[in-house]
Design a protein that fits this description.
The protein has about 450 residues and is of the alpha/beta class. The protein folds into two domains: about 190 residues, Periplasmic binding protein-like II (D-Maltodextrin-Binding Protein, domain 2), CATH 3.40.190; about 200 residues, D-Maltodextrin-Binding Protein, domain 2 (3-Layer(aba) Sandwich). It is about 45% helix and about 10% strand. The chain has 17 helices and 13 strands. The protein has a five-stranded mixed sheet. Helix 9 packs across helix 16 and helix 16 packs antiparallel against helix 17.
């Protein structure tokens, strides 16, 4: 009997020890699970000391503080001309399957990235109220089909700059509303633009209009709206068909207007650096960032801005778009990544970017309180963004379309063949690439 009792006591002690051990192990495993750090990596194209770069770092730190056991790393991979450097790094990561959780991308490339299954559809993880805050132009630029893939807290719209002194000397009367402002509805037509540009040429004795002529992405950003304003498109809704679009009569009319600018000596065939700032040009197609440059570096320059010229009534267009933020399919944490995209582009970001970089706030409710864009001339840029047509093609072959338009523009500037031949060459180039997707 004593032996049996001893055996039972030993068995009970053994079972108790095993239970304690299992309990300890489970507690340890639960503790490890609770303490698991979710790491999110963000790649952006701007340096850390740039206002935009600083903004991303601040928002990332806020996100960490609001989420226990989440670590956000922002890597600043500075882009060089044409986005190279940064884009090279992203393209290499796409090839190797090593993209981070979040990337910055030019909004115009959203469709091509989506076609390659690179981006995460944000609308599967964020509620509708989140998207309702953003400007329609931002939602449109970041969307492909029924999905939203990219967001940003700000947007851009380039004006056409003009020299008030040279206009007055040439006897050109500036259209103005009752407040003396050159408003969107008073934009010059193609014909009016040509007529007044010729007056400026006669007065100045040289090409009065400045345009950048090199073949790069600038043509799609800054000059394609001239085409769109004539009720023209480069490709069909599927982003691939060129027949009846790139070679349509409306497209040809718009390109003929641009061709006339060069053939009549209104625009120089090669870029003249600082022509507008040095008062060697009276009109200039330049980026909105030049507002601060002219104000700070050329205080004696008497400049203002005018709306983009248009071809057909009711089809005014103007440049817009910037670099957006998107989550990638590589992320292990899609819900967190989508939330981080929204946080990096939230209203606080919009306020900071308006205050420190003069950018148009990308959240609807901030427009009414915007001091920067409440008065002319800057208000014209806001009006262009909100109230004109934005028809840059959403296409899986956007880089080829961009290059094809550059070929046409460069060919016009250098008088390399007829307009018809330039259009046909561009069309063939696009169709060769489009055939791969059909």
């Amino acid at each position: 009997m004593k032996n049996i009792i001893s055996f039972l006591m030993i068995l009970l002690i053994f079972l108790a020890l095993v239970a304690c051990s299992n309990s300890s192990n489970n507690a340890s495993e639960n503790s490890d699970a609770e303490e698991e750090v979710k790491e999110l990596e963000v790649w952006v194209h701007v340096p850390a000391d740039d206002p935009e770069g600083e903004n991303y770092d601040v928002r990332a730190k806020e996100f960490e503080e609001a989420h226990e056991n989440v670590d956000v790393t922002v890597e600043h991979i500075v882009k060089t001309g044409g986005g190279s450097g940064y884009n090279d790094r992203v393209n290499a990561a796409i090839t190797t399957g090593e993209l981070p959780d979040i990337i910055a991308l030019e909004s115009v490339y959203t469709a091509s990235y989506t076609d390659s299954d690179i981006l995460l559809p944000l609308n599967e993880y964020l509620d509708e109220a989140t998207f309702d805050s953003y400007l329609d132009t931002i939602i449109s630029a970041g969307s492909v089909g029924d999905n939203i893939y990219a967001l940003q807290s700000f947007d851009l719209s380039s004006p056409v700059f003009y020299n008030e002194d040279l206009f007055e000397e040439a006897g050109i009367e500036v259209p103005a509303d009752e407040n003396g402002n050159w408003t969107l509805d008073l934009a010059w037509s193609y014909e009016e633009f040509l007529e007044n540009a010729r007056k400026l040429k006669d007065h100045m004795g040289q090409e009065p209009v400045h345009m950048f002529t090199e073949n790069n992405g600038w043509h799609m950003y800054a000059h394609s709206p001239i085409i769109f304003s004539n009720d023209a498109r480069m490709v069909g809704e599927n982003g691939l068909d060129t027949e009846g679009y790139l070679d349509s009569n409306n497209t040809k009319e718009a390109l003929q207007f641009i061709d006339t600018l060069f053939r009549d000596g209104i625009v120089a065939s090669t870029t003249r650096e600082d022509a507008f700032a040095l008062e060697e040009a009276a009109i200039s197609f330049e980026g909105p960032w030049m507002v601060d440059v002219f104000e700070n570096e050329y205080p004696e320059l008497n400049w203002s801005i005018m709306p983009y010229p248009y071809g057909k009534d009711g089809h005014q267009s103007a440049p817009h778009g910037s670099w957006y933020i998107a989550a990638t399919q590589n992320t292990e944490y899609p819900e967190l990544s989508a939330e981080l995209v929204a946080h990096l582009t939230n209203k606080d970001s919009a306020v900071k970017m308006e205050e420190e970089a003069g950018l148009i706030p990308g959240h609807q409710e901030l427009l009414d309180s915007s001091e920067t864009y409440s008065d002319y001339p800057r208000k014209l840029m806001l009006d262009q963004l909100v109230n004109t047509n934005h028809l840059k093609p959403k296409s899986p072959i956007f880089p080829v379309l961009e290059d094809a338009l550059g070929d046409i523009m460069e060919g016009i500037a250098l008088d390399n063949g007829s307009l018809e031949s330039l259009i046909n060459d561009a069309k063939e180039k696009v169709e060769r690439e489009a055939d791969r997707f059909k």
